[in-house]
Amino acid sequence: MKALATVGLLCISNIFMTLAWYGHLKFREMEWSKGLGLIAIIAISWGIALFEYIFQVPANKYGFKGNGGPFSLLELKMMQEALSIGIFLIFSLLFFRTEKIAWNHLVGFGFLILAVYFVFLKK
């Protein structure tokens, strides 16, 4: 149960992270944001990133072996990175339709998944 909760919280966290890091790039298409300067964009992104931390911190706390969870620190980090890339791919396909995912992007993502496999491989 802790493993599933950890993965779920990390997914939600990464959705907010992706919105905070890249969502502002779509602001220029929205009428309300046309006059916003860089400081305002940064403040909005920080506000979104707050929600990232609200989900990420509990995911790491409950998922970490040192706190009774099922994952090592390295496993948590590698899982977060793989989820981050996966969520980013979905985000870019849904919101940035001009971006094209090429074969080399998929190969790179495949190598990341392979890296996750090796990190989780038991000795």
Automatic annotation (TrEMBL):
Pfam families: DMT_6 (PF04342). The keyword Membrane applies. The chain crosses the membrane at residues 36-55, 76-96, 102-121. Keywords: Membrane, Transmembrane, Transmembrane helix. Signal peptide: none annotated. It comes from the Bacteria. PANTHER family: DMT FAMILY PROTEIN. This is DMT family protein. It comes from Daejeonella lutea. The lineage of its organism: Bacteria, Pseudomonadati, Bacteroidota, Sphingobacteriia, Sphingobacteriales.
